[in-house]
Write a structure and sequence with these properties.
8-stranded mixed sheet, 13 strands, alpha+beta
Length: about 300
């Protein structure tokens, strides 16, 4: 196994919040901060460290736009798993992975830009220990078992870190990112909904809990799944969810890597419901006063 050279405290920088901030200013305090991997000071430093750690690995190639602050183009499960841990080490901040559940919350409340023209990698799912990608499936399941996770398929792995290893395809393997801030679902979790694909409703309440629907059969979004091996999990530009793709290195310019700074509030849904109810009450009160003013004016 190759040794990864991580940034030391001396190389860490104090970054200002820069780049494309994806949080609605009005509800800023309700959300963790969500950023894209972009062509800014932080992004360029991340790219430099990626080259130092992984060399010119073809699995990690991206397109850097000329425009300052524009999103870096290209993503796959390896790119995301290289970028997120490097940002965390480089900034010495609480950087989280954009998990399937956090992605659904961001979509529901409109804090991801260009969601209908880009795709986002969300991790891996192990349906079984058979091919395709059986070597990586067995490796991740063994790590999860060692970490005390109950093994039951299908299993979602949203917290991954890329590690140089010539024993794996492309010279990279994926490990569990044990330094990541893990939500209540754990570093890996069983997701029974992935046994069956189909259409689902975008307001399915389970989406913002696990990242996947509670039931399929009708709706205007679609879940594609499989029955064997390890597959790539992502959301595409049509807002479909895929847990059936075997081509882990796949990357095109529509790909984006997003990362989250800070913890996601557990009572987000309830708090947003309260805020919207208060807004509706205030709006109704304003409308009533306006109608009363118009009525008085007509009497004059």
């Amino acid at each position: 196994m190759n040794t990864i050279k991580m940034p030391t405290v001396a190389t860490q920088k104090s970054y200002q919040d820069q780049g494309r901030l994806l949080i609605s200013p009005e509800d800023r305090k309700l959300f963790p901060e969500v950023f894209q991997f972009s062509n800014n000071e932080r992004g360029r430093d991340v790219l430099k460290l990626m080259r130092e750690k992984y060399g010119d690995n073809h699995l990690l190639r991206v397109t850097v736009p000329s425009e300052e602050g524009a999103p870096i183009q290209g993503s796959n499960i390896y790119i995301k798993s290289a970028v997120i841990p490097i940002v965390r080490e480089l900034t010495n901040e609480n950087i989280r992975h954009l998990t399937p559940a956090l992605s659904e919350k961001a979509l529901r409340y409109g804090i991801l830009p260009d969601a209908t023209s880009t795709y986002e990698d969300l991790g891996a799912v192990v349906h079984s220990l058979k091919d395709p990608n059986s070597q990586l499936a067995k490796h991740l399941v063994a790590q999860a078992r060692e970490a005390g996770v109950n093994i039951e398929f299908p299993m979602v792995f949203p917290y991954l870190v890329a590690v140089p290893d010539n024993k794996f395809p492309g010279g990279l393997r994926l490990d569990l990112d044990t330094k990541a801030m893990i939500d209540d679902l754990g570093i890996a979790y069983h997701e029974p909904s992935l046994r069956k694909g189909g259409q689902f409703k975008p307001d399915d309440p389970r989406l913002v809990v696990t990242g996947f629907p509670s039931e399929v059969g009708e709706g205007n979004r679609t879940l594609y799944t499989a029955q064997d091996g390890l597959r790539w999990v992502y959301r595409d530009r049509d807002l479909y969810l895929f847990a059936n793709d075997v081509n882990l290195p796949y990357s095109v310019e529509a790909g984006r890597v997003s990362f989250v700074k800070g913890a996601a509030p557990q009572n987000l849904e309830a708090r947003l419901t309260e805020i919207r109810a208060e807004r509706d009450r205030q709006s109704a009160d304003v409308d009533a006063r306006f109608d009363e003013a118009m009525r008085m004016m007509r009497k004059q």
